[in-house]
Structure to design on (1047 residues):
């Protein structure tokens, strides 16, 4: 290239005193950034290829590597930041839409970090989770409004099918195709071990994973990939994906190059054909159409499985949720604008959608105001990063949360956001066999179990601190939250008071 | 149960260890006609080089006999009486047995050279056992010229061992190349060049016609004066003890269980003849690994266990002045794979979908892969033979095979 | 996964050093576990500690012995005849840098407990356990 507009943003900095030229970095970088130069008996790095995934850093046996910012600086400019300038250069060169992986990294407010949790002091004593029973179990699904009795006065069981989870967390949808077989196996085994559920995403369910059916949510997305009667009946619930937080309003695209072998079979499309999920479901153009789809799925599964409808958090999310709550769906899943993805147009990921905290609060309030809150359970996702986020989400009105980015981090993801290249060095967002085998499901599922176990314990500690011994008592309990650094409007939407009040 | 083992080298020790795997109690007696703790015969040349102390020369630890409850008797067996299950030693002692193992080894072959008697005994040596080496060592000094008859494994190891201590070494052999029993022309060349560069002189394709005192007259008339003569022409198996008792062909005939044709009598080592797995022929393969395994096999069977060994093949590992060669099997087969680079040389002999033999000079890494292909008679189309020729390794085997070999898998 | 880290951990375990960077700097390693790789397949080959060890049976000096199931080499006794290299059907014994042979000894001589390659493999590709063998 005659003119280099784009200087590498990151460099792999090598401490040559510690480097023993073991070449592990060279062997493990799928982007070919490191190289052994025989004549000099030295390792060198081509920083233009580095995506900052930290694979080499993590594996280096002598800790000789670290990734640093290259420090090539434009003149300071708050308006035209270096990032914006670089993105423009890329478009001037390629003429293409910018694509990115994972969630919105821009500087929008993170409301979870401005919400504080209560603790009991004198009046309502706190509870010690190591000494007293605490319930993190939740039940997702529509709850009946009234108690119905038969002619003898005995209570009729009119409870619709529920999902029983050991803690208010599920692994969110990540399709087989966007992530690897080994990643799916890790999620499935962890879900089984923990007593929660994982989600197939829109890529269908691989035949090897039918045995984890008791811990699976099967997704029906606009492309209807891999959807057949056996598939629908294999899991515990069916999720209709209307949208996702990272790219509201548009569909998905998995390039034909990745549709081979298992992926092609599982999605039920020919090898080499692009897997395009259209923006709308072409059979859902109104709320009545949604109701029809919900009930066809229930018919196909004999009314045994709850139906989830997943939407992205957009401006009118509360109204949309109200419509869904009246459509016969059992659970609404809302995905905030920080949600992750394998590949999405950068501008849509970074500018479309609203924060999940606000979406959740307004949806919960609206459904309660309309008296239909019990028609559905609410599941939220879109950057739940810790057990504190979970407690805050439940207090704002969620029944359960979805985590995905968090799960991938547990499996080794370093948020380099290069998923769309298909060369994930950690074996997660790739189908290249040599890369996929780097994720050992025996190790991966244990890390997920560890993470969730730790979070569960922390949730109990925080609940205990508040004097609450069950998730049920935390749900929608806005009095347990206070805001800090929020304006009047934000506090009003969230439905919480400011700290100090 | 009384076990009697004639022979205190690899075959005999193998039998002791084999017996003790099954029977910890039965009495074992080992008769050795050398007054030493068990030692490794291939090591005697290292002794001359000064590399081995008396302790290191032991084939097993100093407490071997005590630890294994073995009675070591120094003596020579004169005769075996199988009907009475007794042997008589040269001193007249009688030793009885329930099971007998003969690991009598081999002795140097002395051809009937004309005038050999005229060479004084103190100047004439074989190079087979420890006493040979010790006596030879005593006779050496910087003024002596040494003539070695036989450029085989034993003769050359002797030459390497004594070179620094004497004035000069000359080696004579009828064959046109050195190490003729294990190397071909191309393989022998780097060794000859190396040894000559160190000062050893060779007279090949000739033999000694006669001796005249301390001079040898070769076939072509050349005379070689010497002060010390070492005869390393070859070995003959010590089969005399079982003459008229068990079947003897070229050596004592044994089956896969190391049994001779005589009941309760077993044999192992240099004195036996068994089937070469790489060719199907029955022959003597006088090599330490075979001797040990045959002995161990005999021991286990003598003690009531069940063991067979039917994979004996010729195999040799030897080195001179830092250049190594390993060989195995037979050099038959209508196909060859050859690689040469500097002093390095690799030749594989194969045909009929089987590997029959190989020679590896220089880089001997992973030679065992080839050896196992020969031993197991592995069909070459079941592995990646093209790869294995260039790079011996586990990669040549199929995934299923590797799972078993490296991952452990029940058969 | 072809990273070869087991080889480096093996080499490090064979030194006396406490810091891998100092111990292995500038050295060409000759480890006792070796990777074989081709076409995206890779695996580590090291001594199998066979129940019927051909190397021990062929050793002319008795330098190779079995103790508690582990086959070890007495380097003072080894005379570098390479009969064991010729015998091992896995190619797991090889000449070391000073002439004597070397092979995996399960890190019994280093005061570690778990073999270094097992600890150092990032993907749990090497597992240390007893398994039934074909022989």
């Amino acid at each position: 290239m005659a003119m280099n507009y784009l200087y590498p943003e990151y460099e792999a900095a090598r401490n040559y005193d510690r480097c023993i030229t073991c070449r592990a970095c060279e062997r493990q970088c799928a982007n070919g950034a490191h190289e052994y130069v025989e004549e000099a008996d030295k390792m060198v790095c081509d920083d233009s290829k580095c995506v900052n995934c930290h694979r080499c850093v993590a594996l280096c046996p002598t800790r000789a590597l670290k990734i640093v910012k290259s420090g090539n600086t434009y003149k300071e400019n708050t308006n035209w930041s270096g990032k914006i300038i670089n993105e423009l250069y890329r478009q001037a060169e390629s003429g293409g839409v910018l694509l990115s992986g994972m969630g919105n990294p821009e500087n929008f407010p993170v409301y979870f970090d401005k919400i504080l949790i209560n603790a009991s002091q004198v009046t309502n004593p706190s509870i010690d989770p190591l000494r007293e029973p605490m319930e993190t179990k939740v039940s997702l699904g529509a709850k009946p409004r009234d108690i119905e009795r038969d002619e003898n006065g005995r209570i009729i069981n009119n409870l619709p099918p529920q999902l029983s989870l050991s803690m208010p967390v599920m692994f969110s949808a990540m399709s087989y195709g966007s992530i690897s077989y080994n990643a799916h196996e890790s999620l499935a085994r962890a879900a089984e071990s923990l007593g929660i559920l994982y989600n197939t995403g829109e890529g269908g369910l691989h035949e090897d994973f039918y045995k984890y059916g008791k811990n699976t949510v099967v997704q029906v997305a606009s492309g209807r990939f891999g959807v057949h009667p056996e598939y629908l009946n294999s899991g515990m619930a069916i999720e209709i994906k209307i949208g996702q937080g990272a790219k509201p309003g548009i569909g998905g695209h998995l390039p034909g190059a990745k549709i081979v072998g298992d992926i092609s079979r599982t999605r039920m499309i020919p090898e080499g054909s692009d897997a395009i999920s259209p923006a709308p479901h072409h059979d859902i153009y109104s709320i009545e159409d949604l109701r029809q789809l919900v009930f066809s799925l229930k018919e196909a599964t004999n009314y045994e499985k709850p139906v989830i409808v997943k939407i992205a958090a957009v401006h009118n999310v509360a109204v949309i949720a109200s419509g869904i709550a009246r459509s016969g769906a059992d659970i609404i899943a809302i995905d905030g604008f920080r949600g992750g993805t394998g590949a999405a147009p950068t501008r849509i990921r970074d500018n479309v959608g609203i924060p999940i905290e606000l979406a959740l609060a307004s949806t919960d309030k609206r459904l309660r105001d309309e008296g239909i809150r019990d028609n559905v359970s609410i599941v939220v996702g879109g950057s739940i990063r810790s057990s504190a986020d979970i407690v805050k989400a439940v207090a704002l009105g969620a029944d359960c949360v979805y985590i995905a980015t968090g799960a991938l981090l547990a499996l080794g993801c370093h948020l380099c956001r290069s998923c769309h290249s298909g060369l994930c060095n950690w074996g997660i967002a790739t189908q290249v066999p040599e890369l996929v085998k780097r994720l050992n499901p025996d190790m991966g599922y244990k890390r997920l179990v560890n993470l969730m176990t730790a979070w569960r314990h922390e949730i109990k500690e925080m609940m205990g601190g508040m004097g609450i011994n069950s998730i049920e008592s935390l749900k929608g309990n806005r009095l347990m939250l206070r805001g800090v650094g929020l304006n009047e409007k934000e506090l009003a939407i969230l439905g919480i008071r400011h700290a100090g009040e | 149960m009384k076990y009697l083992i004639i022979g205190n080298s690899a075959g005999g020790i193998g039998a002791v260890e084999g017996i003790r795997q099954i029977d910890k109690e039965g009495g074992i007696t080992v008769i050795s006609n050398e007054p030493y703790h068990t030692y490794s015969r291939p090591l005697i040349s290292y002794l001359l080089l000064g590399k081995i102390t008396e302790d290191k020369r032991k084939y097993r630890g100093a407490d071997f006999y005590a630890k294994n409850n073995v009675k070591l008797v120094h003596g020579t067996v004169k005769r075996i009486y199988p009907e009475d299950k007794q042997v008589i030693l040269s001193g007249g002692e009688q030793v009885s047995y329930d099971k007998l193992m003969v690991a009598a080894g081999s002795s140097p072959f002395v051809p009937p050279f004309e005038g050999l008697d005229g060479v004084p005994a103190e100047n004439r040596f074989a190079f087979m056992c420890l006493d040979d080496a010790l006596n030879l060592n005593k006779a050496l000094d910087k003024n002596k010229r040494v003539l070695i008859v036989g450029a085989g494994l034993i003769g050359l190891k002797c030459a390497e061992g004594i070179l620094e201590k004497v004035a000069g070494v000359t080696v004579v052999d009828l064959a046109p190349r050195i190490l003729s029993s294990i190397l071909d022309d191309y393989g022998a060349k780097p060794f000859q060049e190396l040894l000559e560069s160190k000062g050893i002189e060779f007279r090949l394709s000739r033999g000694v016609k006669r001796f005249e005192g301390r001079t040898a007259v070769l076939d072509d008339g050349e005379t070689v004066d010497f002060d010390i003569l070492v005869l390393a022409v070859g070995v003959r198996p010590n089969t005399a003890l079982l003459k008229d008792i068990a079947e003897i062909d070229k050596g004592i005939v044994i089956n896969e269980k190391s049994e001779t044709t005589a009941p309760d009598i077993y044999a192992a080592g240099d004195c036996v003849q068994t089937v070469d797995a790489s060719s199907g022929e029955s022959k003597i393969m006088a090599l330490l690994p075979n001797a040990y395994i045959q002995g161990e096999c005999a021991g286990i069977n003598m003690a009531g266990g069940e063991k067979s060994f039917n994979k004996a093949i010729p195999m040799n590992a030897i080195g001179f002045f830092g250049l190594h060669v390993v060989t195995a099997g037979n050099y038959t087969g209508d196909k060859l794979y050859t690689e040469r680079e500097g002093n390095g040389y690799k030749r594989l002999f194969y045909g009929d979908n089987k590997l029959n033999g190989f020679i590896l000079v220089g880089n001997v890494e992973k030679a065992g892969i080839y050896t196992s292909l020969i031993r197991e008679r592995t069909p070459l189309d079941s592995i990646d033979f093209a790869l294995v020729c260039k790079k011996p390794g586990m990669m040549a085997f199929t995934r299923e095979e590797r799972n078993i070999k490296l991952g452990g898998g029940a058969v | 996964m072809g990273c070869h880290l087991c080889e480096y951990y093996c080499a490090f375990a064979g030194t006396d050093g406490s810091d891998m960077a100092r111990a292995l700097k500038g050295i060409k390693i000759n480890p006792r576990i070796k990777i074989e790789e081709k076409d995206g397949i890779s695996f580590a080959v090291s001594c199998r500690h066979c129940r019927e060890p051909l190397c021990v049976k062929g050793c002319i000096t008795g330098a190779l012995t079995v103790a508690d199931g582990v086959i070890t080499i007495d380097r003072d006794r080894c005379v570098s005849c390479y009969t064991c290299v010729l015998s091992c059907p896995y190619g797991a014994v090889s000449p070391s840098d000073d002439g004597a042979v070397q092979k995996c000894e399960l890190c019994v001589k280093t005061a570690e407990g778990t073999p270094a390659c097992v600890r150092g493999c990032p993907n749990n590709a090497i597992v240390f356990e007893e398994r039934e063998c074909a022989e």
In short: The mean pLDDT of chain A is 92. The interface with chain C takes residues 17-20, 22-24, 27-28, 58-59, 61-62, 64, 433-434, 437-438, 440, 442-443 of chain A (CB under 8 Å).
